[in-house]
C-alpha cells in the first residue's frame, strides 16, 4: 500500500509486526488493499447495535445506526462516525476511478466510498467496507 501523502499514522508498526498480529486474510485486506469476496464477511447482514472499530488498531470508524442494507455483498454505511477517523484517497486500480477509505489512525485499507448511486440515505453515499477490516463492539458490552 502506498503511503498517504501529508499524513502520519498514529499507530506505526513494521510490516513484520502487522504480519504477526493479523491473520493472512486480514493482512491482505488491511495492509495490501485487498477485498474479501462478496457475501462472505461476518458483518454483511448483521443488525447488532454497536460501534465498528478498525480491526488493525481499534480506532472507532462507524456506528450501527448509519449501517444500511445496500445488497452489494459488503457492510455499507452512509457516513463514518467522525470524518477525522478516516482518510480518503483516489484509487485508480482495476481500470476504475474510485475513492479508497483508510483508517486515519493506522492507514489500513477499509474499502471504498461511492456517491450518487440513488440509495435513500441522508448523505447519498455508500461506504462499502470489508467486514474483515472491522471489529464490532456491541452496544452495552
Automatic annotation (TrEMBL):
One GO biological process this protein is involved in is: protein repair
- So what does this thing catalyse? L-methionyl-[protein] + [thioredoxin]-disulfide + H2O = L-methionyl-(R)-S-oxide-[protein] + [thioredoxin]-dithiol
Q: Gene3D superfamilies, from UniProt? A: Peptide methionine sulfoxide reductase
Give the top-level enzyme category. Answer: oxidoreductase
Q: Name one GO molecular function term.
A: metal ion binding
The alphabetized UniProt keywords are: Metal-binding, Oxidoreductase, Zinc
Cofactor(s) this protein requires: Zn(2+)
Oxidoreductase listed as a keyword: yes
Enzyme Commission designation:
1.8.4.12
Which Pfam families is this protein grouped with? SelR (PF01641)
Q: Which GO terms describe its cellular component?
A: cytoplasm
Under the heading NCBIfam families, the entry gives: peptide-methionine (R)-S-oxide reductase MsrB
| Protein name (Swiss-Prot/TrEMBL) | peptide-methionine (R)-S-oxide reductase
Organism expressing this protein natively: Actinoalloteichus hoggarensis
